[in-house]
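Exercise 3.2. Students should predict the tertiary structure of the chain below and write it as structure tokens, then compare their answer with the key that follows.

Predict this chain's 3D structure.
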Amino acid sequence: MHINRYSSYQRIAAFFKAVSRLGDGWFWGVMLFAALLSQYMAGTAGGAIWLPIFSIMLTSSIGVGLYKILKIKTVRPRPYQVHQVIIMGERPLDVFSFPSGHTLQAVLFTCALGGYFPILLWLMVPFALLVALSRMVLGLHYPTDVAIGALIGAGLAQLSPLIYRLLNTLIA
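Answer key:
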């Protein structure tokens, strides 16, 4: 409730709405493009330029599947649905609260993409933190939804190098 109080300030609410919308995938798409561009400029050629991107996209897809299963199984209502003092600052993309899919994907992309392209971390780490905070400021998630989403995202990011090696083996 304390974090959500900041959404009563119009500029803060607008800022976190923008962060949340960029966290829907736009920001991560730009980061993937930046990674491709950096590989191209470094002289990487052929399928090797796409391997990190495909491995992250497959890992992200696994994250979406797990997230959807958890949402259906836990059916936790959103904070604004339970507590009348919570202000809904943005329309949710789905019905249930647990876990935060935005945070899951933000941490997954930051860890996985940052593992391949550490130069992008200076942009991704602060943005991922803002995405996580936005979900609570906007009244869409409890802190535990965000924390578990982050843990799941970090755990799933560990799959990306394994998927990379599998794809590299299949291509070679």
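Discussion points: The two ends are 53 Å apart (CA to CA). The chain is about 70% helix and 0% strand.
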